[in-house]
């Protein structure tokens, strides 16, 4: 199943050209961001560019997820890591997994253990994580992620050359409601519109599938497993590819569909854990050398250096069996040089390698498939480059197919998310590729039964809204039939038996929200005592959107009322509206169809609800309404026809109390926006200052260098030269004193002061250097014009399309420009080079343009001219007595006879020609015929070529 890279490159461009058809070239570009724990990748789709990775400032395709603050300056990526080596507490890394976590979460405790030099404090309002950077400055994980997203947009805009504000972000599949809400809030802080959150394994599978649609069919699905080991965690997913019919009733077509069937993961199995163990191993080996009395593990800077070297060593040992770890000046100016073998690394991480197969086995179990049904296990993520990881997968999975390596392990998720971004954007039209993700953490509703007998204890009821591996996006309805008073219910995670105890703690609060319904009694009271009333209960409409977020859309009381009336009285406008509404139901409505969840009687056991419930609310309502409408058996047919059922909906007020970790809200949210904005302004001011300083220093160096060249020195007087050199010295001394700390405006003013005195000299030099080539171009134009004019003068006006006025105009223009040129050149030669010239490049260009404009007009007229053909009387030499007699016939009669003869010849020729012969063929034969009796005349093409060659 491995596809060589060169085979995939050939159809790549062709596919994307057809796949990404731009509907509006002025529409904004879109981007995708694969923000991981260690690296961030950015992809763009812009007009003329199907899909590509946006490069960062260092022209690299991925950027470390790192932010550093030092001396009031903020740096990103590699620059931030450089700061982090010397000042570890100033550089923040691996903060993505702290999103949506309370301070007592096991993940936060593990983070503190791994990176002890950070000062982590609880948020006083939300009890979440805060990095205390200084006494007056602190950052939340949402703010740090917002900064990275802002930097990602900068990379994307630089690559696309236009503004970008829409994004699809890929996230780990094990992110719950709290983490996903935090990601969206971070994007909102950065001022970026999120089109969708997409799971990283779904994005990678989409990137794999869009280039292999021809391999899919309608009858048998193609099953694939994607194994992704990243820096922080490992995810495995089982997906199916299949062609399904679109829901278009007019012209249905087959469309590719990707469905996630099973997912398994290990949150702490990744490259970071391997790197940390290597770091600790190197620290222990260094301490054993006894080169210093200080313990290297107690020094934050030394441990940061070892952490960086461990990352390099991990990558090298993936391709080599041994390597030396080297750090200069590790501690107390002592260097470290330790040889590490791959066997030692594998022994350090033996327990980790034992867990490699677990995510894949869990994914297979969740999908209900066996490894024999999987076409191939495709590798993704940088962690899969470790040889031992691949060996354990082959050994433990026992797949008959070799591991797939054709997917770009670093960029697959970013490119798949970019395709989804183009699909969701209004500016692009892409080939449809349906994606159906799966619910990793099931969600249920818990409520108390309506109290009928106060002596009996209250019974709690649970209803599954979205089960494990249920597809989404999807909508569900839960109906409360017995509640007629205000009540409340809880929404939370359910059936987490597939997770271990520690993972459930990492997930955070299992209760997501508490929902209180107000006005239930009043809604019932409005219709109490009325005839023909059938209450269908309180219906709560839930949705799992494309981003995997649970949304309570609305809650309403549904009542069906039986009234008298003629069904034919329905208005024509209403019929038309219903018809149009039915016609334009798209496939999204089918994917997101509402599925009811019923409330059973109190004494019945709680059933397990699956996707086999009724397909739509409309079906449920029709069944219920049919059952509830009871008519008298003796009623006449006319009376039955006069009854109809109408639906009445009463909206119920909802108080939503979230129980999981909510993102920052209110004033704190506005404060975060302000903080990010101020930091950005500081960065812009810094960038502007650096640019101004660089321009000023460059100008000083270039000015001194140019004055040493004869061309520039001859163009300046002695006074000007001395003035320029004095100004350069003055500015240089100012920079050395306190100029480097000046603002950009002051630096720009110094630059303008220097520019004012050097520009006259530079302009003179430009004139002297450029003048010869401009004069040569003008001379060539005059020579060509003179040649053309001589040809016209030697030709009669009848043989040319020109008038005498046009010829005289050209003659006068050539004479005037020639005289002007000679006079100006003569005057300019009298002036020294350090005096402003009288013959400038601009005036030469104006004269050149005027002669070219006139010649262009004449040549255009000449090339479009059609010469008139000269007709000569045709004579025929007498060859017989009959011919002699005909020769004595008057001229008119002879011409008439000739015309008739030619007509007959043409008619006869026409009938003998083949049917496919064209009019042009006949014309050519006639031309050939005339050549025998008439002198040869030049054709239009010949004349054009001749005239051009002569000119």
From TrEMBL:
Q: Where is this region: Disordered?
A: 595-615, 866-951
**Does the keyword field hold Signal?**
yes
**Residue stretches spanning the membrane:** none
State if Aminoacyl-tRNA synthetase is listed as a keyword: no
A single Pfam family it belongs to is HSP70
Q: Which GO terms describe its molecular function?
A: ATP binding; ATP-dependent protein folding chaperone
**Which UniProt keywords are present, listed alphabetically?**
ATP-binding, Chaperone, Endoplasmic reticulum, Nucleotide-binding, Signal
Q: Where is the composition biased (Basic and acidic residues)?
A: 897-951
Q: Kindly state a single biological-process term from the GO annotations of this entry.
A: endoplasmic reticulum unfolded protein response
Supply the InterPro entries for this chain.
ATPase_NBD, HSP70_C_sf, HSP70_peptide-bd_sf, Hsp_70_fam
Cellular-component GO terms for this entry: endoplasmic reticulum chaperone complex; endoplasmic reticulum lumen
Q: Where in the cell is it found?
A: Endoplasmic reticulum lumen
Determine the domain of life of the protein's source: Eukaryota
Similarity comment text for this entry: Belongs to the heat shock protein 70 family.
What protein am I looking at? Hypoxia up-regulated protein 1
């Amino acid at each position: 199943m491995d596809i060589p890279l060169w085979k995939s490159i050939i159809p790549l461009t062709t596919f994307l050209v057809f796949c990404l058809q731009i509907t509006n070239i002025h529409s904004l570009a879109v981007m995708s961001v694969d923000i991981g724990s260690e690296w961030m990748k950015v992809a763009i789709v812009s007009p003329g560019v199907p899909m590509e990775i946006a490069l960062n400032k260092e022209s690299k395709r991925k950027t470390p997820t790192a932010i550093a603050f030092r001396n009031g300056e903020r740096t990103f990526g590699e620059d931030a890591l450089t700061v982090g080596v010397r000042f570890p507490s100033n550089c923040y890394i691996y903060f993505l997994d702290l999103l949506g976590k309370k301070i007592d979460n096991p993940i936060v405790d593990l983070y503190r253990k791994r990176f002890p030099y950070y000062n982590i404090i609880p948020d006083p309002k939300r009890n979440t994580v805060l990095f205390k950077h200084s006494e007056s400055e602190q950052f939340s994980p949402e703010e740090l992620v917002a900064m990275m997203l802002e930097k990602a947009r900068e990379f994307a805009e630089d690559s696309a050359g236009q503004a970008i504000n829409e994004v699809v972000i890929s996230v780990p599949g094990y992110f719950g409601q709290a983490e996903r809400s935090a990601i969206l809030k971070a994007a909102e802080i950065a001022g970026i519109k999120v089109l969708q959150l997409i799971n990283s394994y779904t994005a990678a599978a989409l990137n794999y599938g869009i280039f292999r649609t021809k391999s899919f069919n309608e009858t048998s699905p193609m099953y694939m497993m994607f194994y992704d080991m990243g820096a922080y965690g490992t995810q495995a997913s089982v997906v199916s590819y299949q062609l399904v019919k679109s829901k278009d009733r007019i012209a249905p077509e087959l469309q590719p569909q990707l469905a996630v069937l099973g997912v398994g993961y290990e949150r702490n199995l990744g490259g970071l854990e391997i790197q940390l163990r290597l770091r600790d191993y190197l620290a222990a080996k260094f301490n054993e050398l006894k080169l210093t009395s200080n313990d290297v593990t107690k020094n934050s800077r030394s441990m940061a250096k070892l952490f960086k070297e461990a990352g390099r060593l991990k990558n090298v040992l993936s391709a080599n069996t041994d390597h030396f770890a080297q750090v200069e000046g590790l501690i107390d100016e002592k260097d470290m040089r330790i040889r590490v073998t791959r066997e030692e690394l594998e022994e350090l991480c033996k327990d980790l390698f034992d867990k490699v197969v677990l995510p894949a086995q869990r994914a297979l179990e969740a999908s209900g498939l066996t490894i024999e049904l999987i076409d191939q296990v495709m590798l993704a993520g940088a962690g899969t480059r470790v040889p031992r990881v691949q060996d354990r997968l082959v050994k433990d999975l026992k797949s008959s197919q070799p591991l797939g390596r054709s997917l770009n392990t670093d960029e697959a998720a970013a490119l798949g998310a970019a395709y989804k971004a183009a699909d969701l954007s209004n500016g692009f039209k892409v080939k449809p590729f349906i994606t159906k993700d799966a619910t990793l953490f099931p969600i249920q509703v818990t409520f108390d039964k309506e109290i009928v007998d106060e002596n009996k204890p209250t019974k709690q009821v649970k209803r599954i809204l979205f089960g494990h591996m249920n597809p989404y996006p999807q909508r569900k309805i839960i109906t409360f039939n017995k509640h007629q008073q205000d009540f409340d219910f809880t929404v939370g995670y359910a059936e987490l038996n597939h997770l271990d105890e520690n993972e459930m703690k990492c997930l955070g609060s299992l209760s997501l929200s508490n929902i209180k319904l107000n006005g239930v009694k009043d809604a019932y009271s409005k219709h109490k005592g009325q005839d023909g009333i059938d209450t269908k209960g309180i219906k709560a409409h839930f949705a799992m959107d494309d981003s995997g977020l649970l949304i309570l859309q609305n809650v309403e009381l549904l009542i069906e009322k039986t009234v008298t009336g003629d069904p034919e009285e329905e208005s024509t406008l209403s019929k038309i509206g219903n018809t149009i509404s039915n016609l334009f139901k798209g496939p999204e409505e089918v994917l997101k169809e509402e599925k009811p969840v019923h409330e059973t009687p109190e004494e019945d056991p709680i059933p397990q609800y699956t996707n086999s419930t009724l397909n739509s609310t409309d079906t449920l309502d029709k069944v219920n309404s049919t059952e509830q409408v009871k008519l008298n058996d003796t009623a006449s047919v006319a009376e039955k026809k006069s009854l109809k059922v109408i639906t009445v909906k009463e909206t119920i007020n909802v108080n939503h109390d979230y129980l999981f970790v909510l993102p920052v809200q209110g004033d704190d949210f506005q404060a975060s926006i302000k903080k990010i904005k101020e930091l950005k302004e500081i960065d812009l001011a810094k960038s502007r200052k650096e640019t101004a300083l660089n321009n000023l220093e460059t100008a000083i160096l270039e000015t001194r260098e140019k004055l040493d060249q004869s061309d520039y020195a001859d163009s300046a007087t002695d006074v000007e030269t001395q003035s320029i050199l004095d100004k350069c010295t003055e500015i240089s001394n100012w920079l050395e004193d306190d100029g480097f700390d000046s603002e950009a405006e002051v630096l720009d003013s110094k630059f303008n002061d220097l520019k004012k005195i050097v520009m006259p000299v530079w302009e003179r030099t430009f004139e002297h250097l450029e003048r010869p080539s401009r004069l040569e171009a003008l001379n060539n134009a005059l020579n060509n014009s003179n040649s053309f004019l001589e040809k016209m003068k030697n030709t009669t006006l009848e043989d040319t399309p020109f008038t005498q006025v046009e010829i005289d105009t050209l003659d006068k223009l050539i004479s005037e420009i020639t005289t002007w040129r000679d006079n100006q050149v003569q005057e300019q030669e009298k002036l020294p080079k350090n005096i402003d010239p009288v013959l400038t490049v601009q005036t030469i260009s104006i004269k050149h343009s005027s002669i070219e404009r006139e010649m262009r007009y004449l040549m255009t007229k000449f090339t479009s001219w059609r010469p008139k053909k000269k007709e000569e009387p045709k004579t025929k030499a007498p060859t017989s007595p009959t011919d002699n007699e005909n020769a004595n016939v008057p001229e008119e009669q002879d011409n008439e006879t000739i015309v008739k003869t030619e007509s007959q010849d043409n008619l006869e020729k026409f009938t003998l020609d083949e049917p496919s012969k064209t009019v042009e063929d006949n014309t050519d034969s006639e031309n050939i015929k005339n050549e025998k009796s008439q002198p040869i005349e030049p054709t239009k093409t010949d004349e054009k070529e001749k005239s051009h060659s002569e000119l």
